[in-house]
């Protein structure tokens, strides 16, 4: 029983670390500060070097096919980071972000993780999808990303309004205000797709990142 609990805890911690680094990369991809971008890329590279070392350890009992796939991802992360560095474009950043998120999602699914971590992952994914859709200048993708983000915040609002919620009153009120903000800005952005308000979209993305970060930090403390 203790061994199973330790495995679950380990998977949760690994998922949290991957999400934290994905979040840092997402913020860095929107920054013009090369030192900030370099720090995020360097930390992510070190993480994947550690993952690669762990995979090559004789103590690693993962199935060989999973190890092989993770080693390929590790080599890809190393190659693109070392070859392009701070000059990589948004698409390159998104590929690194999505790798971390996909592995994190698999870990969370495998241990049937807590609601807070699932919400943190969903908020982070919506932020990345919004950013990617804008970068690709694809209206259909942006509409879909805005719709998914709105649905997530409607769900969060419903949870915050629930009588059985254990959230502190201040936290609940803040989430309700943010949900109202996201709803109003989604409508505003949807009505002006040809003249996109980048500042409003950036605020929505950063809101998701900050709330996701808060949820992960609270789980870490717990």
Would you kindly provide a written description of the structure presented here, covering whatever features stand out?
- The N terminus is likely disordered.
- The radius of gyration is 18 Å and the shape is globular.
- It is an all-alpha fold and 222 residues long.
- It has two domains: 113 residues, Four Helix Bundle (Hemerythrin (Met), subunit A); 108 residues, Four Helix Bundle (Hemerythrin (Met), subunit A).
- The chain starts with a helix and ends with a helix.
- The protein is built from eight helices and no strands.
- Helices cover 83% and strands 0% of the residues.
Structure, briefly:
This protein has 222 residues and is mostly helical. It has helices spanning 2-29, 34-56, 64-84, 90-110, 115-136, 139-161, 169-191, 198-221. The radius of gyration is 18 Å and the shape is globular.
Q: Compute the number of strand runs.
A: 0
Query: What is the CATH level 1 assignment of the largest domain?
Result: Mainly Alpha
Structural class: mainly alpha
Q: What is the arithmetic mean of pLDDT?
A: 80
Strand content: under 5%
Task: Explain the layout of strands and helices.
Blueprint: H1 2-29, H2 34-56, H3 64-84, H4 90-110, H5 115-136, H6 139-161, H7 169-191, H8 198-221
Helix pairs in contact: 1-2, 1-4, 1-5, 1-8, 2-3, 4-5, 5-6, 5-8, 6-7, 7-8
Relevant terms:
disordered N terminus, mainly alpha, Four Helix Bundle (Hemerythrin (Met), subunit A), 222 residues, 8 helices, globular
